[in-house]
Amino acid sequence: MSFELIKRLSEAFGPPGYEVEVRKLMREELEKYGDIEQDRLGSIIAKLKGSSGPKVMLAAHMDEVGFMVKLIDKNGFIKFSPLGGWFDQVLLGQKVRIRTKKGDIIGVIGSKPPHILEPKEAEKVVKKKEMFIDIGASSKEEAEKMGVRPGDPIVPETTTERMANPNLIMGKAFDDRIGCAAVIEIMRTLSKESLDVSVYGVGTTQEEVGLRGAQTSGWVVSPDLCFVLEVGIAGDVPGVKPEEAQEKVGKGPAILLRDATLIPNIKLRDFIIDLAEDLKIPYQVDVMERGGTDAGRIHMIKHGVPSIVIGVPTRYIHSHVGVLSLEDFQNAVKLVSEAIKRLNEKRIKSFTE
């Protein structure tokens, strides 16, 4: 169940502002367990059927890092504008999918061939502004006849697959479709429970360009407590020092101690850590000094919302292919589900007393 759900979400098309396909998938799943509404930016909100009491928000963003067609040059090559943060070195030679008014078109990201560069020039990283997308058009007019026009969205063209180690999977958009899958699985798990809180599963929009859907959906829900389900930065690859990224794939979900936009509620953080230890759920802790998540907006809604980020350690985020562990994903679902089962009005109030 988990792999198939993650695969469907991962392979869906949805850069910031163009999350329609992902939202449709989330609606299909969440309406099994909750009553659906939508904010005006397109975030989807599902209130768990039969739940009542203080509001607990589960948030994950639907958008992935992508691009937008900026212009088509006279020879039919496409210049693009990034939607979200991209590391220039991961782009060249990669396939992309452009969604046009006439359907999807596959292209490849190219640049001036290295064989004809001066040696010093060849040693430099090629910048995005020097790259282009080749869709096989020979002129601007031909590209336009194919349906391409400025403003068309673009995403990596990648399939989601199991690796030789079947517990590890690789694919695009794990940031943050893995969080979307976790929200769905937690809602499914809790639909079978008698709870003392209301649970809201939320897929937010436009996180990668400024946490925008988190702000609007947070105001709609007005939660008393929030869990943000995310990826974590796996540091278990050559060249990464422990002080740069502590997480390891396969060693459990990560509890974020801070990022650039959030210091989690300390009592809530300790409650989650103690619970993981009591239930013998493997976990890790990490610090991310740059970047942030939807919790950065949600924790400042109205009077303030006790919030925490639970991440699935992932290698190579913001690239065409990430790598993560299904077991880490399942343990993240278990940890948050077990925490919510133990929440009530008194305990939630205790976090801010």
Structure summary:
The chain is of the alpha+beta class and 353 residues long. It is 27% helix and 27% strand.
Describe the 3D structure.
The chain is built from ten helices and 17 strands. The mean pLDDT is 94. With 353 residues, it is α+β, with helices and mostly antiparallel strands. A hairpin with a 6-residue loop joins β16 and β17. The protein has two domains: 2-64 and 172-350, 3-Layer(aba) Sandwich (Aminopeptidase); 67-156, Elongation Factor Tu (Ef-tu), domain 3. The longest helix has 17 residues, at 174-190. The strands form two sheets. Strands 1, 2, 3, 10, 11, 12, 13, 14, 15, 16 and 17 form an eleven-stranded mixed β-sheet that branches. A six-stranded antiparallel β-sheet has the order 5-4-9-6-7-8. α1 packs across α5 and α5 packs across α9 (326-341).
Report the CATH architecture of the largest domain.
3-Layer(aba) Sandwich
Main β-sheet: number of strands, strand sense, barrel status? 11 strands, mixed
- Overall geometry comes to globular
What structural class is derived from the secondary structure elements?
A: alpha+beta
- Number of domain units: 2
The CATH topology of the largest domain is Aminopeptidase
The fraction of residues assigned to DSSP E strands is 25-35%
Q: What is the alpha-carbon Rg in Å?
A: 21 Å
